[in-house]
Write a structure and sequence with these properties.
42% of the residues lie in helices and 14% in strands. By secondary structure, the protein is α/β, with parallel strands linked by helices. The chain is globular. It binds pyridoxal-5'-phosphate.
Length: 230
């Protein structure tokens, strides 16, 4: 999908792997910036201006890591139109969709030859198991399988079985996980509300993780931060 001299358009803030992957293929990453002040929403007019003749792919992460933003459905429709009108495919990374607190619409619900990426790492907390999947047309999946066969070779059978079990219990697991995360994010939001820090309420899971990781790094608890900014 990408080639030397081509470019890929990525909503930013973004998961750094997208830009690094583009770079490893000698493609340029063009960032469409989103801001906390605009609730991390993409401006479709700005997006249009970023596309050029060398654009090969648009990457979307919904809900987004690290902002947790779930794309508004009107904006999503606009973004799909912009890409379709130019014959550009969208790769939608939906690894956080199941854990979202608000309704998310998969790119699969839109017309077009899109690519959807998903993982067992987030919904089922199986990050060490290294299993995920991609939904795309056969021509593309055939191409993906070729390098996979000589690199990953295969997903071990016991991991496939664990993944199958996770899918069988999917509804129950999603309900339990969301409840647990909600129990943690509500007090986090409340503590942050008492500070001068600007933040948006969590749509999906990841800004919670982002906040806690950040706090871990500076070795301060949320309460200490709250005290510092009072
Ligand atoms: C947005 C996003 N996509 C994909 C992944 C990759 O997940 P994994 O390689 O564990 O399936 C991550 C991991 O943090 C992520 O944040």
């Amino acid at each position: 999908l990408l080639e030397k001299g081509g470019n890929v358009i990525i909503s930013s803030l973004h998961w750094t792997a997208y830009g690094l992957t583009a770079k490893s293929l000698s493609a340029d990453a063009k960032l469409i910036k989103t801001r906390l002040e605009s609730n991390w929403e993409v401006n479709v007019e700005d997006l249009k201006r970023l596309f050029d003749t060398k654009t090969k792919l648009r990457i979307l992460n919904n809900p987004n890591n690290p902002t947790s933003k779930v794309v508004n459905q009107k904006v999503m429709g606009g973004m799909v139109d912009v890409a379709s009108e130019r014959g550009i495919r969208i790769l939608s990374d939906e690894v956080y969709a199941d854990l979202s607190f608000v309704k998310t619409k998969s790119l699969l619900e839109y017309e077009g030859e899109h690519i959807v990426v998903n993982s067992f790492s987030k919904t089922f907390a199986m990050s060490g198991w290294r299993i995920g999947y991609i939904i795309a047309d056969k021509a593309l999946t055939d191409k993906i399988i070729k390098p996979n066969q000589i690199t990953f070779t295969n997903v071990p059978v016991f991991i496939q079985e664990a993944a199958l079990k996770a899918l069988e219990l999917r509804d129950h697991i999603i309900k339990t996980m969301r409840k647990k995360y909600r129990k943690r994010t509500d007090p986090a939001c409340k503590i942050l509300s008492d500070t001068k820090l600007k933040f948006t309420k969590f749509d999906g899971l990841n800004s919670k993780v982002f906040t806690f990781n950040l706090l871990d790094k500076v070795e301060l608890g949320l309460k200490t931060i709250a005290e510092a900014f009072k």
